[in-house]
Amino acid sequence: MGEAIVITSGKGGVGKTTTSANIGTALALQGKRVCLVDTDIGLRNLDVVMGLENRIIYDLVDVIQGRCKIHQALVKDKRFEDKLYLLPAAQTTDKTAVEPEQMKTLIDDLKQDYDYIIIDCPAGIEQGYKNAVAGADKAIVVTTPEASAVRDADRIIGLLEKEEGVEPPKLVINRIRSHMVESKGMMDIDEVTTHLSIDLIGIVADDDEVIKASNHGQPIALNPDNKASIAYRNIARRILGESVPLQHLDNKEKGMFTKIKRFFGVR
Amino acid sequence: MKKTQNVTIKGTKDGLTLHLDDTCSYEELKQELDRKLSNSSRVQEDNKLLTVKVQVGNRYLSDEQKEELKDLIRQKRNLIVDDIETNVLTKEEAERLKREGEIVSIARVIRSGQVVEVLGDLLLIGDVNPGGTVKASGNIFIMGSLKGIAHAGCEGNDEAVIAASVMKPSQLRISDSINRAPDHSSDEDERSMECAYISENHQIIVDRLQALIQQRPNLTRFEGGR
């Protein structure tokens, strides 16, 4: 019996879909059987980020309305043999085509076959959000270090706390620009976590490579050397129960001497 | 023949008081009140309005009955009912009174979009985040930081106060007064352990917590100690 994790944020454009794709990828790389579910009906794009757009035959609404079986709609990601699948959202209808109860049944079915169900939630707090949360056991709230995103994350956390059957949400702070944090132009990690007062499960630095990778349909988590990729892999390891320290964000290239000093614990 | 009168009128230096007996039936009472007031119609001929207090003893009057008595008294004479006093409270009223006098403690974060409303005083162990609202009919005490909206004395109590460990509200409301944060507040100034109250000229004043000792001595309920 697997567990279902909903990735949500309230605000749009903070990186829910990217986070879903990369956490899913990283979990699959760890050898888990993962199913990604896109619940953004009408505005799907998890398939684009995963590079699976042209293999879609059936979608979530087809499954729920009984036009096909679940396994017919699931798109297999060939990069991971039998580990990673995607259930794409419908593009032709809207979010009212699905009821939270139906969604819950669907997720419960998927939990029989997969270790992790990653549910990509649409922005907002209406029907689409309710559908996405209906079947979830855990929740990850994505925010960026901006006042507006943090405000919406706060709202979503309040709603998630009321949701029965969902564990207290965990926080991912995305797109941190360390030079802006240093110059006080951006909220720092402490500010965000004390404000939202929930557990932090990962921090991801802002990186152009992430966008480039998404555009190519290759989630950044596939790249073993990238900093953002390592951040997503760390989140996956934390989901699996490992305790992994947070990344250092200062991306300034340190000289050899400072590296040696740090090695010996001299600041 | 009745032995005692059901309605007695007494004049004190504060004005007239109508004592209505609480052992007779309501209908009897109404009849006698009607008669009494008609009898004494010659007492005063000038049109000066007099306010009267009505004492009903241990009789429970519903709101309609109260209105009926008020109308009755108002029609007959140039009398205006100031107040109807009764010794009886319904269970609901009593419970409400009790709750209004209590301190409700809540341990959680009030997040954006959430509204918490209590009867009585509120003791919040946690923060009020921007976009969150706390309301109390009495005082509000916040152990964490207040960054949202706090509304004390929300049923119209000017004496109510708001106190917070960190006072950075987006808005403060006490009774009918509203005070909002300055548009350009610097993050540097420590706004810790502060309180807000309504001053004599109906402005919300934010001050250090210790000011409450002078401004609202009634906050102390503790008696004794040495």
What is the radius of gyration of chain B? 25 Å
Determine and state the CATH class of the largest domain in chain B.
Mainly Beta
Structural category of chain B: alpha/beta
Compute the separation of the termini of chain B in Å: 62 Å
Summarize the helix and strand pattern of chain B as letters: EEHEHEHEEEEEEEEEEEH
Short note summarizing the structure:
The complex is a heterodimer of chains A (267) and B (226). With 267 residues, chain A is α/β, with parallel strands linked by helices.
Could you characterize what this model shows?
The complex is a heterodimer of chains A (267) and B (226). Chain A starts with a strand and ends with a helix. Chain A has an 8-stranded mixed sheet, with helices on both faces. Chain A is of the alpha/beta class and 267 residues long. In chain A, helix 1 packs across helix 11. Helices cover 40% and strands 15% of the residues of chain A. In chain A, strand 6, helix 7 and strand 7 form a beta-alpha-beta unit. The mean pLDDT of chain A is 91. Chain A has a single domain, classed as 3-Layer(aba) Sandwich (Rossmann fold). Chain A contains 12 helices and 8 strands. Chain B is of the alpha/beta class and 226 residues long. Chain B has 2 domains: 79 residues; 125 residues, Pectate Lyase C-like (3 Solenoid), CATH 2.160.20.70. Helix content of chain B is 19%, strand content 35%. In chain B, strand 1 and strand 2 form a beta hairpin. In chain B, helix 1 runs parallel beside helix 2. Chain B starts with 6 loop residues before the first strand and ends in an 11-residue tail after the last helix.
